[in-house]
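Researcher: Quick test of sequence recovery. Tokens follow.
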């Protein structure tokens, strides 16, 4: 496995390179399931009647942030990403949608917000690219209001043996080839496939959420367990 400095440098390199084709590749490689998954997370947020504030970490090109901003409560959404190049498409999409998003570059381990300043926090397909996951979730918990929820949407290796076999072959062989064909960088998609294969199963990830100081962790499978939504809360009174 890479050391932390090397991994962060590799993440910056990959997403700087694939930013122009990121949305296209997501749609192709997931057969558009990624759109449905993000909408599921957006609908599942528990928000105050007046909308409140939501932080979307590793917001990328802004798809989840925009889905949240479109909710009837019209929450104020802030999207943060480590790679500034990923925010340019998010800015353009927000302008086309007439959505008001706060978009900024930043590090999930050092969020530039006060304690207890958000009603909910989300991160989609980003937590596995953060070397210190527990610290990142603790930092997201810090900026949540007591009782606020963190929603983590992430790939993992499916639990069902037959699905796992097929999906593992896809990750090891087809994903790098397709990703390389569109982006011109097969090695980047080999790295991303490896991060999925090494990501902990749901029960182990919930233990990491607990180690981050979050409570009532639960997980929901999507599309035969290819992706999961993990939800946990900041304890009341903290």
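Model:
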């Amino acid at each position: 496995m890479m050391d932390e400095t090397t991994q962060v440098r590799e993440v910056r390199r990959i997403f700087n390179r694939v930013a122009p084709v990121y949305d296209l590749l997501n749609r192709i490689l997931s057969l558009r399931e990624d759109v449905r998954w993000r909408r599921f997370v957006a609908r599942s947020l528990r928000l105050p009647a007046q909308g409140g504030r939501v932080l979307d970490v590793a917001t990328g090109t802004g798809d989840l942030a925009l889905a949240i901003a479109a909710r009837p409560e019209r929450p104020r959404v802030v999207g943060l990403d480590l790679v500034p190049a990923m925010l340019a498409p998010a800015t353009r999409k927000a302008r086309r949608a007439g959505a008001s998003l706060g978009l900024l570059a930043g590090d999930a381990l050092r969020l530039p917000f006060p304690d207890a300043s958000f009603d909910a926090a989300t991160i989609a397909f980003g937590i596995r690219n953060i070397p210190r996951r527990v610290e990142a979730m603790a930092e997201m918990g810090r900026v949540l209001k007591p009782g606020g929820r963190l929603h983590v949407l992430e790939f993992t290796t499916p639990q069902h043996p037959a699905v796992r076999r097929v999906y593992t072959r896809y990750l090891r062989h087809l994903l790098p080839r397709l990703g390389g064909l569109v982006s011109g960088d097969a090695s980047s998609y080999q790295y991303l496939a490896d991060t999925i294969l090494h990501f902990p199963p749901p029960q182990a990830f919930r233990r990491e959420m607990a180690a981050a100081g979050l409570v009532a962790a639960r997980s929901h499978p999507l599309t035969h367990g290819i992706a999961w939504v993990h939800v946990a809360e900041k304890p009341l009174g903290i």
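The two ends are 35 Å apart (CA to CA).
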